[in-house]
Design a protein that fits this description.
This protein is of the alpha/beta class. It folds into 3 domains: 2-244, Ribonuclease Z/Hydroxyacylglutathione hydrolase-like (Metallo-beta-lactamase, Chain A); 260-359, Rhodanese-like domain (Oxidized Rhodanese, domain 1, 3-Layer(aba) Sandwich); 362-456, Oxidized Rhodanese, domain 1, CATH 3.40.250. The protein is built from 16 helices and 23 strands. It has helices spanning 36-45, 65-72, 159-174, 205-211, 220-228, 238-244, 263-271, 282-287, 302-309, 325-333, 348-353, 366-375, 387-390, 403-406, 428-438, 450-456; strands at 2-8, 13-19, 25-29, 48-53, 75-77, 96-98, 103-108, 117-122, 132-136, 182-185, 203-204, 260-261, 275-278, 289-290, 294-295, 316-318, 340-344, 358-359, 362-364, 380-383, 399-400, 419-422, 444-447. A hairpin with a 4-residue loop joins β1 (2-8) and β2 (13-19). α3 (159-174) crosses α5.
Length: 464
């Protein structure tokens, strides 16, 4: 058997290629949209990708099922409860897929979503202990899939109902497998699909039975309460991706960079509504950038944070480092943001020919912020961390507005009063600062080093 996990750290996303060496037949489970990694591995191992299996309709990334089907002729399969707008071969509970010696058993595990399935992998059909189980978003290492994501998206499902289904799925379909069964989830730490995911990307069922808070003995009511409380804020783009994964859409060609544009053309497109996106590091952006640009650095959780502050239907022009244009386009395409129309081919034009279109960012140190808090009565402190990050403390007087909801919360703030933004370490805060400046806030700064720098300096915080 050939079994490979492909882990995409920037989205905390795991996908899998499973192949049978004797027959050359293979499947890919929960693929990312840039599918070259699977095609290259299949070619190197002499495998034919015959099927794409989706454990559920994903909300946190745009899956590569359409791209793989087009490239290989593979059929696309979801659980039979999925409703999509393209041809599929549904999988039913208890169905077996034989690749040769390798056998896959499908188990319906509704809860995170109604159509969720898990895939039990047997290296040889009839083995008493499975090689592993691909759990999708049903079971993570250290957590389980949150049942509340669909509750606010107009699907008619509520968190209580899905939570009870999840409890039943875990106890009847997953925990009935042997403890030696390896657990291979679709996500790891950093994903918003749960609240306590481990940085480990695989485990065993026995270890999860011992250490996972959600698998401890409890009643169904206790389980629902435990898994619905304290979840991270739903990222802004999740609804768009969940819907896009149901539909036909343009296929991604991951080898094609966006076109280079001259400054005059860039300015014309911006005048017509395009958004300038600068993907350089916060310190470089703060030192000088195009007026009105949004900063989302490539070294952070780029696609997720970009999806929180940009509109998928708005044209994007890249105005930072030209060398990263292709990478930026592909990483945005992973969440379905396909309207990258070009990049500023020579940023020197901007700084040399149009210095009137260049601005810098105000950043304050811990000491400077402490003085501002004492001196500026109208100062607005904004903390853009997620709720789970703020339970241990926050700056006194800070408004908690997670980055995922900031774009919808601008009217809660006074555009004419000074604002200082903090996050955990000073990365998301500049994303937020650039968004606020673009939205017309006149006096915006961010805290260098974020909450971590504030507490390291021994400054006071409030808890609760």
């Amino acid at each position: 058997m050939i079994f490979s996990q492909h882990y995409l750290a920037c989205l905390s996303h795991a996908s899998y290629l499973i192949g049978d060496e004797t027959s050359g037949r293979a499947v890919v489970v929960d693929p990312r949209r840039d599918i070259g990694v699977y095609l290259e591995e299949a070619d190197a191992e002499g495998l034919r990708i015959e099927r794409v299996i989706e454990t559920h309709l994903h909300a946190d990334f745009l899956s590569g099922h359409l791209e793989l089907a087009a490239a290989t002729g593979a059929v696309i399969s979801f659980g039979e409860a999925a409703r999509v707008d393209f041809p599929t071969e549904p999988l039913t509970h208890g169905q077996t897929i034989d690749l040769g010696d390798v056998s896959l058993e499908i188990r319906a595990t509704p809860g995170h979503t109604p159509e969720s399935i898990c895939v039990v992998v047997y290296e040889h059909a009839g083995d008493p202990v499975p090689y592993g189980v691909l759990t999708g978003d049903t079971l993570f290492v250290g957590d389980v899939g949150r049942p509340d994501l669909l509750a606010s998206s107009g699907t008619g499902w509520d968190a209580q109902t899905l939570g009870r289904l999840l409890y039943q799925s875990l106890n009847e379909q997953i925990l009935t497998l042997p403890d030696e069964t390896r657990v291979f989830p679709a996500h790891g730490a950093g994903s918003s699909c749960g609240k306590q995911l481990s940085s480990e990307t695989s485990s065993t069922l026995g270890e999860q039975r011992r250490s996972n808070y959600a698998l401890q003995p409890m009643t169904e009511d206790q389980f629902v309460g435990a898994v619905t409380e304290g979840q991270p804020v739903r990222p802004h783009y999740f609804t768009f991706d969940a819907q896009s994964n149901r539909q036909e859409h343009r296929l991604l060609d991951e080898s094609v960079a966006p076109p280079a544009m001259g400054l005059a053309e860039v300015l014309e497109r911006l005048e017509n509504g395009a958004v300038p996106l600068d993907t350089r590091e916060p310190s470089d952006f703060a030192a000088g950038h195009m007026c009105g640009a949004i900063n989302v650095g490539l070294l952070g959780r780029f696609a997720e944070w970009a999806g929180n502050v940009l509109d998928p239907n708005t044209e994007i022009v890249l105005v930072g480092d030209p060398a990263t244009a292709l990478e930026s386009r592909v990483r945005l395409a992973r969440i379905g943001f396909d309207r990258v129309i070009g990049y500023l081919g020579d940023p020197r034009q901007l700084f040399m020919d149009r210095p009137d279109l260049v601005e810098t960012c105000s950043r304050v140190s811990v000491e400077q912020l402490a003085e501002l808090v004492d001196q500026e009565r109208n100062l607005q402190l904004v903390d853009v961390r997620d709720p789970g990050e703020t339970v241990t403390g926050r700056l006194a007087g800070a408004r908690l507005i997670p980055l995922a909801v900031l774009v919808d919360s601008l009217d809660e703030l006074d555009r004419d009063a000074p604002v200082v933004v903090n996050c955990a370490g000073g990365y998301r805060s500049l994303v937020a600062t650039s968004l606020l400046r673009r939205a017309g806030f006149s006096d915006v700064s961010d805290l260098i080093g974020g909450y971590g720098a504030w507490t390291a300096a021994g400054r006071p915080v409030v808890k609760g």
